[in-house]
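Thread: adenosine-5'-triphosphate complex, take 2
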Amino acid sequence: MGSIDSEQETASGGSDWGPRGTAAATFAARLSFENITHVYGDLEAVRDVSLELAPGEIVCLLGPSGCGKTTLLRIAAGVERPQSGRILLNGSEIASASAFVPPERRNVGLMFQDFALFPHLTILDNVMFGLRNLERADALREAQAALRRVGMSQYEKSYPHVLSGGEQQRVALARAIVPRPAVMLMDEPFSGLDQRLREVVREETLAILRETRASCLLVTHDPVEAMWMADRIAVMREGRLVQIGTPTQVYRAPADISTAKFFCDFNELIAPARAGKVSTPFGTFKADTRKEDGSTVVLIRPQGLVPTTGKTGTQGTVLEVRYLGDATLLSLGVHGCERPIKARVPGSIVPQKGETMRFKIDPDHVLLFPAASATAIGARDGYQE
Ligand code: ATP
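Output below.
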């Protein structure tokens, strides 16, 4: 794709974005999902999901492929009708057993991964498309202002095929915001962009969403993207809502092992808990004593292994070294651990294979779960004795 030179494309997705604070604002709405279930044939794609977006809130639906994120978004858009449950916009039913407001009357803006610009329309006409109810002069003024805000005014008369991916994304954003939707629904909007460009486009999109004050439901399978964008993250798995919370809550206190592992790579140890304490080769951790003792899963993030000097700490033999510049990834042989242990240490530390090192554990990077239930037990209470 694209006519723009690659240096500009990498830096900002084209030329400069417009001044911040100039996107037209809307009256944000409260979007509520109540006990939504949706079935395709025999497949329950969404199962009893309840979720509420406060006005102006950005909620990211996060989960692996096929967990029902897009289905939920399509239901909010009005493209699918749920088999049971209700969708409300500011308390009014827009989808239920007895009500159905068609997509074009919901005041929602849509943005999808493939941008979906009309190839036969100019950039300006693409953006004006959503303003067919306005007088042409008004529509022109609004569309031009939106294009200015995303920094794409100079392409008004061009057609989509001459634009790069980043530029098409910006036009798609202008087209989505120009009717001033109360709710924006975005499905993997940045996944077609390369990583550095994605960060710029994400940052600018976030600024524009805040300016418009629209509530936003954004689908992603990328935990970093969710943490970057979201006020709250709704974690989905197999059609169910597993957990909802701020990025900090979901990352630090995940509801279960699968959620924890979705956000981060872990070392996984299994050890018995006795009297609320779990002994591992890295020391003893305190579990929540209100729960019964039993086999416990101890998850330790690679960055939770902190190299120490002197004679304290657990000893490991360096098996593999991967230098990444700002960090070094180590694979370690540790007495008492069946599998190699992963450590992520500062890039200033680059040991040789076969060297021995000592590590203490940062308790902020330890999570404990009872092996049977796979639900967290006092993960934030974990400490090393
Ligand atoms: P992805 O990230 O891959 O898009 P997702 O989490 O958005 O996944 P959905 O697209 O909502 O998941 O799909 C949920 C399940 O429903 C999947 O198993 C999918 O194959 C199935 N599904 C989705 N749309 C249809 C359809 N129109 N007909 C039949 N099955 C469908």
